[in-house]
Structures are given as structure tokens and as C-alpha cells.
Design goal:
The chain has 149 residues and is an alpha/beta fold. It is built from seven helices and five strands; from the N terminus they run αααββαβααβαβ. The protein has helices at residues 3-15, 18-25, 29-43, 59-85, 99-104, 106-116, 130-138, and strands spanning 48-51, 54-57, 91-98, 120-127, 144-146. Strands 4-3-5 form a three-stranded parallel β-sheet, sandwiched between helices. Strand 1 (48-51) and strand 2 form a beta hairpin.
Amino acid sequence: MEIQKLRGFYWAIRCLSFSEAAHKIHVSQSAISHQIKSLEEELGVKLYERVGRGIVPTPEGERLAHYARSILHAMDDLESEFAELSGRPRGTIRTAAIRGMALFKVPWIVKRFRQQHPEVNLVLSSSSFDSEIIRRVAAAEADIGITSS
């Protein structure tokens, strides 16, 4: 099983759309389609169902998405760790913050961090609810959560 296939599948399921996944990982929509078809043939199961213009995972697709998320995060961690060992930290830090913090406090922190670590990609999402921030961290959708509590 190739990592590129898993990446395409994971983002398609996460975005519930081939086209959005293709945009997210900078490949063509047909590449995503071929990757997923190849995975389905390799595993002998159907991984998604079409619903209108989008997709939803089958139970087998949900199970594979769980493993794919873990594998892709582990690959990101591995790359980041070895980049750091070589003296140039890089990778991605996913942060979820309560909306007020994301608008008023986090930007100056991000600016300072980027100056010190230009090769580290910061992804910031926000929510109006502390419970959503906590859910994102618990689901490993965010590495750091900033709440109002």
C-alpha cells in the first residue's frame, strides 16, 4: 500500500469530496479517483458511496480513514523529528483556538513563531465553542487547543 494512495483517500474522506481533496493536496481530481480505486482493488472492499456531488465513507472506509490518519500523522512526526535533529525544524502544527483568541491574541504569537521557525507550517482553525476545540484536540485534528476557560 502506497502512502500517496492513503493520503488521497484520507483527504477525500475528510473533505467528503474528491475535488476538495485534490485542491488540498495539490493533485488532480482524477489522481484522487485513481488512488482510491486502486486502494479498493487492493483491499477488496468499497471505501465510499456517492451522495449527490459528494461522498461518504462506507464502514470499511471509516476504518481505513482511522488508520490512514494515524499513519499520515506518524509520517509527519517522523519527518519533523529528523528535520529538527538536523537543526532545521519543520513540519505542521495544527492549532485550534476559540474565535476571540484566534482574532486578537494568536496573530502576534504566530508572527514571532514564524520568524524563529520559518520552515514550520502553522494551521489555525477557530470555533466559538470550547467544546469544539477540545473535541478537535481529542480527535487529533489539532495538536494544540486554546480555549477561553
